[in-house]
Amino acid sequence: MANYSNEITNAVLSINAELGNDSDILHNLKWLCGTRRGDVFTSRMSEECTSFLKLFEILNDLCIISPDNVTFLSKILEDVGKLNLKAMIDRASQDNHRNRNERQLPSGNRQVHETQHRPVEPVSPQVVMAPREELLGEDLMPHFEVLVQYIGRDWRYLGRQLGLQEFDFENIMEQYPRNLREQVMKMLSTWKERYRVKATKAVLVKALRKCRMNLAADILEKMSVTSG
């Protein structure tokens, strides 16, 4: 995924987390790939594909999708009825193209481009998005404020247990190269934003204990949680 924009990468990882172990949806997606691109998408590839992220990587390796064109991915998500996930990919693709075009403009023309040529995103009446609070699930931000002082310099180890990737850590270090507290906060908030309703207190406690951060886990277990 190294050549893909942050917008598309984050969308793919969010979809991967959203689908989780939904084997029926994954089976249908693989079936569509085999039906429409059976010339290159083999049965062995289908068997090796155990997650949406793996499917994304295979489609990229086969050049069915590319950093500039994820139309095939958007279409198969639509055809399996996952219109909210299709909208996520489409929005990320539009943001990617817009950001790339803006970077190519002379600096003096960027403001004019933003105000006069901002593309209007299509709105599908079939896609009904839940309120942001509902999508995010448990409100853990107050807990993060407390936990930062107990996690320390091993925050990347915890981040891996929570499912974050190396590029996440690189981005965090670039933003906060000398501020450990902000590094930890950004890691936790990135996890929450990406995994949303699946980013729960119980998951965080389990990850903390795997990292032998038992004091932080004990403190978190005693804190109450509210849901959006």
UniProtKB/TrEMBL annotation:
* Cleavable signal peptide: none
Which parts of the sequence belong to the Death domain? 151-224
Cellular component aspect of the GO annotation: CD95 death-inducing signaling complex
Xref: SMART domains: DEATH
Q: What molecular function does GO assign, one term?
A: caspase binding
Q: Map out region (Disordered) in residue numbers.
A: 92-120
Gene Ontology terms: biological process: extrinsic apoptotic signaling pathway; positive regulation of innate immune response; regulation of apoptotic process
- What protein name does the entry list? Fas-associated death domain
Q: What is the organism field in this record? A: Holothuria leucospilota
